[in-house]
Write a structure and sequence with these properties.
The protein has about 180 residues and is α+β, with helices and mostly antiparallel strands. The chain has one domain: Trefoil (Trefoil (Acidic Fibroblast Growth Factor, subunit A)), CATH 2.80.10. It has three helices and 13 strands.
Length: about 180
């Protein structure tokens, strides 16, 4: 019996290891198509910290993309396989992109993944990242609020995110693409 249990545990460990390797291979950044004022580009990013130390309670922001370093950090890595299902899932933290309500002005947060309408988003062919519950609302980078961080060379740049009415006049702040290393 002990031998069977050991064999099952070893098999499960291999499955978990394979799964984490596969997950790392499927990581992508969600990149604002227009670089605006940041040559390295803006990506969806957990606000308030870098990599493994990012605090989940601060939600998401547009932040200098990290792929210029040769990798995708934990706080910018989304599971590519779930995007087509409308889930913007960050596997390292086991959370999904969410909004408190599907209405203009709502901030873009993070929460445990559910099947709620507040967590369903589609990346349209035109680059707009829309709320499925109201496809007239897009994930939008602030045009006016911007701050510089303490790291990177040159310094990293951050901008808040919110749901705003989709508008071609705001395309620079509302068009996204997927970046894979």
């Amino acid at each position: 019996m002990k031998q069977i249990i050991s064999s099952v545990v070893a098999t499960l460990s291999l499955i978990a290891l394979s799964s984490s390797v596969l997950s790392a291979e499927n990581l992508v950044e969600v990149l604002l198509t227009d670089k605006l004022d940041e040559e390295r580009g803006y990506c969806l990013d957990i606000a308030g910290g870098q990599g493994k130390n990012a605090p989940l309670d601060r939600g998401l922001q547009a932040h200098t993309c990290y792929h210029y370093t040769g990798g995708i950090l934990e706080d910018q890595g989304f599971d590519e396989t779930l995007l087509s299902e409308g889930k913007f899932y960050i596997p390292y933290f086991d959370v999904c992109m969410t909004v408190p309500s599907v209405e203009a002005g709502a901030p873009v947060n993070l929460d445990k993944c559910t099947d709620s309408d507040t967590q369903k988003f589609l990346l349209e062919d035109n680059g707009q990242l829309v709320a499925q519950a109201d496809p007239n609302l897009c994930v939008t980078v602030s045009q006016t609020e911007k701050r510089e961080g303490r790291g990177g060379s040159p310094v990293h740049v951050m901008r808040p995110l919110s749901l705003q009415p989709c508008d071609n006049a705001n395309k620079a702040y509302q068009a996204w693409s997927i970046y894979k290393l």
